[in-house]
Design brief:
Number of helices: 2
Strand order of the largest sheet: 6-5-4-7-8
Helix content: 10-25%
Largest sheet: 5 strands, antiparallel
CATH class: Mainly Beta
Shape: globular
Order of helices and strands: HEEEEEEEEH
CATH architecture: Beta Barrel
Number of strands: 8
CATH topology: OB fold (Dihydrolipoamide Acetyltransferase, E2P)
Number of domains: 1
Bound molecules: zinc ion
Strand content: 35-45%
Radius of gyration: 16 Å
Length: about 140
């Protein structure tokens, strides 16, 4: 990865989430301790039961392609080496949707519903890029 890329500096609940991801080395998602509902992005109160008691739980990162877009141009010079790349909305098996980036050989072969895995790539103590890995890549 190009070292000149802007590294986001999350705050509040997003900071809690990314610190959990970085410290565990795995994707984590906010989970309600009262009813077990997973939420993303993290919220102060559970959207199902309104409890404010939550934790960040390690999850497998597996899910399906809910939506995606293919970037073939970038106004940001630091990302030009990555072109073309996909920005993918992944619906995790736990329910929430997360956004990640994918670099694959045949981006036009992506299909909605395709099985993928979201993997964090740590950049700082407080942030990790979320990379989307396609199942066919995992097998090789
Ligand atoms: Zn709840």
């Amino acid at each position: 990865m190009n070292a000149n890329k802007v590294i986001p500096e999350p705050d509040d609940l997003n900071l809690e989430l990314f610190q959990a991801i970085v410290s565990s080395g795995h994707l984590c998602i906010q989970k309600c301790r009262n009813c077990g509902h997973y939420s993303h992005p993290p919220r102060m109160y559970c959207p199902r039961c309104f409890s404010g008691d939550y934790s960040y739980e390690r999850v497998s990162g597996t899910g399906t392609v809910y939506s995606y877009t293919l970037s073939q141009h970038s106004a940001e010079p630091a990302w030009k080496d990555e072109l073309p790349f996909l920005t993918v909305v992944v619906e995790l098996d736990q329910g929430p949707r997360v956004v990640g980036a994918a670099k694959i050989d045949e981006p036009t072969a992506v299909r909605l519903g395709q099985r993928v895995r979201v993997v964090p790539e740590t950049r700082t103590d407080d942030f990790a890029y979320l990379t989307v890995v396609f199942e066919s890549e995992q097998a090789s």
